[in-house]
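Notebook, bench 3.
Goal today: get a predicted structure for FAD dependent oxidoreductase from Haloferax prahovense so we can plan the truncation constructs. The sequence was checked against the plasmid map this morning, with no discrepancies at the termini. Length recorded as 410 residues. Pasting the sequence as submitted so the record is complete.
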Amino acid sequence: MTDNYDVIIAGAGPAGGQAARDLAARGYDVCVLETESEDEFPSRSNKSTAGTFPSTMASFNIPDEVVMNFTDDVVLESPNHHYHRHQPGAVLEFADFKNWLVDEAEADGAEYHFDARVSKPIMEGGEIVGVRYNGDKEVYADIVIDATGPSAPLAKALDVCDLNRQKQAIGIEFEFEGMDLAPEGYGDLTDAMMLRLDHDIAPGGYSWIFHTGGDTAKVGVCYIQNEGHRHNAKSGYTIDDYLQYWLDTDPRFANAERIAGKQHRGSAHIQLPGRMSTDNFMAIGDTVPTVDPLWGEGIDKCMRSGRAAAATADRALTNSDRDTSASELAIYDQLWHERVAPKVKNRLFMTEMLYRASNERYDKLLEDLHRLPNEQLDAANGGSPLAMFRMLKFEDLSILASTARDWFSN
């Protein structure tokens, strides 16, 4: 193992994996450091529901072999209503997907080192020049990319990204067999990805059922420690308690059983990113704030952030003098706002408002969705202020005011 590379990437998730894949294909010497062991990868880091849409599959040439089930619809649920929208998609086997990214990059020459826990940056003249991992091991590169998402040990040490952790998102997911996907009184979830807004199950967040074929599905709960959670939380309940409450009260789980070994946990933070780069360094992958307000798709954002980082590194390293200065790598920040998360402030504001609404308002929202044209929903989901405003009702003014007050105070 050499200790000098063009690019070091900490973290082998979708963002880090895609960055490594693109850079290796361009002929750069790439080293990826991943905390998990090769035998276990990916287990503890398997934090995604792994639902995505055809545009992502095509943009990144994701093979059918990593798909658990191709879906036809997206379904939104409230406590008493549901809304079906025809939206083809794919539920990925996330472990196979991440291993595919590893195989793709390694085939083009990238080096992956597992059991490699990154601890801190190596600094010279006030700039990062390498990474220390597993205690005393060192590796050096012209560019270092922190793709560890919420943990971000390098970004924290460099004081990049304005990592003021305030609103933590906590999630848990199991895979089940024996599901009843269409009991009386519920929408048919066959070949569908469903997101449910219901504070009894996920106060200040959402729950989901993603059909993975036959009578199996991914089932999970995520809540954010926000105003919606503080107002609606059940005293003493943990994330496991909320999931169990749902399993005990929903007929779709009456005969369902957990599939052994298919349990995933994770956490992230919902906040607007600040600066994401500096001299010789980029921080990528923590894309939870960019998730679509209505449809929830996040894998695409991770992949696009990895591609934007690779394009930025390629530009910097192609220069005859290899200009990896902060001003050059700031192109990543520009690409992030243009291509990864356009109108991110509007979309995140909409998300925060959504999680503050009551269950009764969720029922009204789903009633409205049946009457609204798809173009308006797409525009609102994409952050159009006018489309978002048209979805508001008089009772939403208090939610709008409280959300705006918190934004300006923070």
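Residues 40 and 222 are 24 Å apart (CA to CA). The mean pLDDT is 90.
Flagging this for group meeting.
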